[in-house]
Write a structure and sequence with these properties.
The complex is a heterodimer of chains A (333) and B (238). Chain A is mainly alpha-helical. Chain A has 15 helices and 2 strands. The chains are: A mainly alpha (333), B alpha/beta (238). The structure holds adenosine-5'-triphosphate (ATP) and magnesium ion.
């Protein structure tokens, strides 16, 4: 993005910064245009795959707030995804709620649960925190099975998918795609504005130097817990959209593997950048099935090897690698 | 109303290990107090106790406010800015973000005014605004740390070895600025420093700490004249 050439060095700092921002917004607008255009060019199955990438991107945006920006760890993100998915499913199944209303409810439920679990969990650090969040992932989903009345037990719940309104002229897969895209764009803008605010700076301070943050008046436990609750909220929203798109939830959809894959995907995509979650979502969506294709007997091994290769080639994740490559181009002019 | 720093019967430590054994000192509002002492004496621990980072007993008062037992963020809100040992720079953040974080406990438009004030003290920071703080030189980082502390508009400024790792000329410049800040803003300062000459140059009062006890107190001039101190801490000239 930024060049180190002499022309830019000569420009006064505010101009240089404006130019960089302009270019950034131009890139985002282009990406959005491509995203709007894509479903009219792809076959329904590929539209569905793209939709799922967006669903995971929303979840990873939240995980990134916690891991990339607040410097904490969670191996239980999939559990909050499941909570959002089930909240939405139960609301649709039981109370026939109009589906747009399930989104704020699912997000709120996940947020509150994140807050409740975050208060004790965020007193811990590092490996202890990883273990406790892993425990959340292990226990929460089987717990859902217990409330058979509501959740359909191990059979799960099957739901009607949101249908495109007649005025739109869209097919079902396209409509679901655009719903998801709208949620993803909103989630992205919310995260971006959050991170630019005083709160975002406080999160970064907690991540970079706890002691210095504390003596400047930043309350560590408050921000860690808040970041955990936000990440849960994002996962909940993503889970809710998942239910709309798939039309089915069961405990088997949300195994511990999902949580681990999400964290791995985010790290591979790139921590602490806004592009990381999108790249990570591609990883979560495609790499497990690629691994399955390469070696049916041991997909875990292939999966693990792929992670090692990526981390070796791009220690700051794919977003960091992309950043390095784009920065190299102008230098050669 | 005076805002003297009053410390009485202060003990502090880590876990079971007690490091400070009953300190008593007063720093009058607007004065600079130097803390001298050998490595491991407990100087850093004293500053940590003042800003609530370690478990303490006894009394710490700043004006009317009792600081004892408050967590660090609450102490910061009472106007105590601590530049920790090792500067506490947020390396990946930009210089400007670091400075704005200094004003975290305050809000409002006067943050911009204060940024200008910090740039006036440290013109070099203005040139580096959008640069990652981790890419600054050691001296620049120390200036950033001091500038960030000023953003809090502190009533009490705690400095832990600001000269550490800096060239003598940079150190002298830094102490010059500390003196200016103290004179212009009437900020009370407690400075821990190995470079006793410089510290005694700006301080009105000084205390010598050894193994968690104050072994000598006096005006800066008295301490400077003390033979024992001269042998231990003033053995070299800058
Ligand atoms: N985090 C800690 N946990 C346990 N003990 C500590 C900790 N920090 C310091 N100590 C102990 O407290 C004592 C005083 O340490 P302190 O850092 O206050 O000394 P100091 O006077 O600042 O020394 P220096 O001049 O080397 O910086 C030392 O014996 C040290 O081992
Ligand atoms: Mg020390």
């Amino acid at each position: 993005m930024s060049t180190t050439g002499t022309t830019e060095a000569a420009a006064p700092a505010p101009v240089r910064q404006r130019r960089r921002l302009d270019r950034r917004w131009a890139g985002l607008a282009l990406l959005l245009a491509a995203a709007v255009y894509a479903p009219f060019q792809l076959v329904p199955f590929h539209v569905f795959q793209l939709t799922m990438v967006l669903v995971y991107a929303v979840a990873l945006l939240g995980l990134n707030l916690l891991v990339g920006h607040a410097g904490q760890i969670s191996l239980g993100h999939g559990a909050f995804f499941a909570v959002g998915a089930y909240a939405s499913a139960v609301l649709l199944d039981r109370w026939d709620l109009p589906y747009p209303l399930t989104l704020p409810v699912a997000a709120a439920v996940a947020f509150l649960l994140g807050l409740a679990l975050g208060v004790p969990a965020m007193r811990l650090r590092g490996l202890y925190l990883a273990l406790v969040t892993l425990a959340i992932a292990i226990f929460l989903v089987p717990l859902l099975k217990r409330f058979e009345e509501l959740t359909g037990g191990s059979m799960g719940l099957t739901l009607a998918k949101p249908q495109p309104p007649a005025w739109s002229g869209l097919a079902e897969d396209q409509w679901l795609y655009f719903l998801t895209l709208a949620v993803a764009v909103a989630a992205f803008l919310l995260a971006a504005s959050l991170l630019r605010s005083r709160v975002g700076r406080a999160l970064h301070a907690v991540r970079d130097n706890e002691i210095a943050a504390e003596v400047m008046g930043v309350r560590l436990s408050f921000y860690k817990t808040l970041a955990f609750a936000w990440s849960a909220m994002y996962a909940g929203a993503a889970g809710c959209v998942y239910t709309w798109v798939i039309g089915f939830v069961s405990p088997d959809s949300f195994t511990v593997n999902l949580s681990i894959t999400m964290l791995a995907g985010l790290v591979v995509g790139g921590l602490g950048s806004l592009a990381g979650p999108v790249l990570g979502a591609l990883f979560v969506m495609f790499v497990p099935s690629i691994a399955q294709d390469v070696n049916d007997a041991a997909p875990g091994v292939i999966f693990g090897l792929l992670i090692i290769v990526v981390m070796y080639v791009a220690p700051t994740g794919l977003a960091g690698l992309a950043g390095r490559l784009t920065r190299k181009i102008p230098r050669k002019e | 109303m005076s805002a003297d720093l009053v410390v009485e019967d202060l003990t502090a430590g880590y876990g079971d290990a007690q490091v400070l054994h009953g300190l008593r000192l007063t720093v009058r509002e607007g004065e600079v107090c130097a803390i001298l002492g050998p490595n491991g004496a407990g100087k850093t621990t004293l500053l940590r106790a003042l800003s609530g980072m370690v478990r303490t007993r006894g009394t710490i008062r700043l004006g009317d406010a009792a600081l004892t037992g408050r967590p660090p963020d609450a102490v910061a809100r009472l106007g105590v800015a601590h530049v920790p040992e090792g500067r506490g720079t947020f390396m990946p953040l930009t210089v400007e973000e670091n400075l704005r974080l200094g004003a975290y406990v305050r809000r409002g438009p006067d943050v911009e005014t204060d940024l200008e004030r910090v740039y006036a003290y440290f013109p070099v920071l203005r040139k580096r605004l959008k640069q990652a703080a981790g890419s600054l030189s050691g001296g620049e980082q120390q200036m950033l740390a001091l500038g960030r502390a000023l953003m809090l508009r502190p009533r009490l400024l705690l400095l832990d070895e600001p000269s550490l790792g800096l060239a003598p000329i940079v150190t002298r410049e830094l102490f010059g600025i500390v003196r200016t800040i103290n004179e212009e803003e009437r900020t009370t300062v407690v400075v821990v420093e190995q470079n006793a000459h410089l510290a005694l140059g700006v301080a009105q009062q000084a205390h010598v700490l050894e193994t968690g006890r104050i072994v000598l107190s006096g005006t800066a001039a008295q301490i400077q004249a003390d033979e024992q101190v001269a042998r231990s801490y003033l053995g070299y000239r800058v």
